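Ticket #464: bound-state structure for adenosine-5'-diphosphate.
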Amino acid sequence: MKKARRMRMQSKIFRGSLFTTLVAAILCAGICVGYSYCSISLESRKNLRAEARNIAWAVELGGQEYLQGVEPEPKSRITWIGPQGEVLFDTDVQPERLDNHKKRDEVIKALETGYGESIRHSNTLDKQTLNFAVRIADGSVVRFSVETDTILAILQGAVPSILGALALVTVLALAMAAWTSRRIVEPINRIDLQQPGKDRTYEELEPLVRRIGSQNQQLQEQMDRLTREHEKQDKFRREFTANVSHELKTPLTSISGFAEIIRDGLVRPEDVSRFAGNIYKEAQRLIILVGDIIKISRMDDKQIPVQREQLDLHQLCEDVIEHLTPAADQAGVELILKAEEQVPQILGARQIADEMIYNLCDNAIKYNHPGGTVTIHLRRQGENQVMLQVEDTGIGIPQEHQGRVFERFYRVDKTRSKAIGGTGLGLSIVKHGALFHEAALDLSSVPGKGTTITVVFPIKPKKE
Ligand code: ADP
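RESOLUTION: The complex was predicted; output attached.
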């Protein structure tokens, strides 16, 4: 995967600010130099133009005599040109050595309109000659020429000063950029992410700061919830461990007691078999209890993956009935299955669903009266559900216990439960199984009349 490049905000602002300052300074300097050059050259041209007119006027009045007496400024020159372009006089060169000037731009314009101007560049590009030509009354032209530096030459001369100014501006720009970038980034770095609303910051950052604040609050709430959950789980585990130890200790104490009496020869030979029977019964209870503890621990540990498959609840009910028929016969209870034709299969875990049905039916037999019945109803409910109901005609559960019978090791009548081999975990296993299958669980019971426990299974759990 391509790694995202990290950006440094401060250096980005620094570079941006430096670039902007330098560009602005250079542009400003360029505009100022350009503007000054233009205005100075326009002004000097205006003066030169006026001077050219004065000279022309003087030539018109004084003719050759005036020209011979005139002494032009250095780098300036006066030329008198006849109407045919022939040079009549020149302050620098003998006229006969000069060629005809009729084709010179300024002379053409002056002969045509009375006044003409031109600029001619020297070969070296650093000098230029400004020519101002004025036609006088006799049709001849007086030309005043001045040699000046070109803009390139002026700039070349100014290079050291320009470089010096640029260096100064660069240093200033660097200092300003460093200061600006630090000032911009500082309030952002100052934001306390634990309490983002505490410090004042940029208006533009306020939505982000508010979001961080509310996320912090959400995180805190989640943490509190998890801590409470964890503490509850912890308490729950401690209680479970204490209950397990207690439940295991009772049969083990009995077994140990019976065995001790037999070992010490305190039991008459004819009673030995009864005592051994008691040891066997307690050991059986232990085996069932340990089995239930293993089942519930396995369900608790959600890490263990459980294979889901299509389950035929009708078949599972028939299997349970077959398994429990001897116990039901012994208790004088009749087992009835009332199942609809074609009950849809559900997606579930075979072993867990089997344990749920078994425990419900086992309880319905255990807490029943001789001659009573246990009826399993199985039918489709709505489009996506299957209802399993175990209804008995037994002793029922008093109202005040109905909310607690699904808790681990909770029994309404401890002595009765133990006497008939109950572990206090049967309904907990049912509740776990319902949770696993995302099934709804309901209990209704009337003491002395019977109990009905209903489980509504979704055909396909959502988590699948
Ligand atoms: P146990 O192993 O004691 O039966 P359970 O978790 O299966 O444990 O049930 C908890 C308690 O709920 C039982 O001890 C019993 O008091 C009561 N109980 C459960 N099922 C029935 C029922 N069908 N009729 C009456 N009481 C019941």
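RESOLUTION NOTES: DSSP finds ten helices and twelve strands in the chain.
TICKET STATUS: resolved
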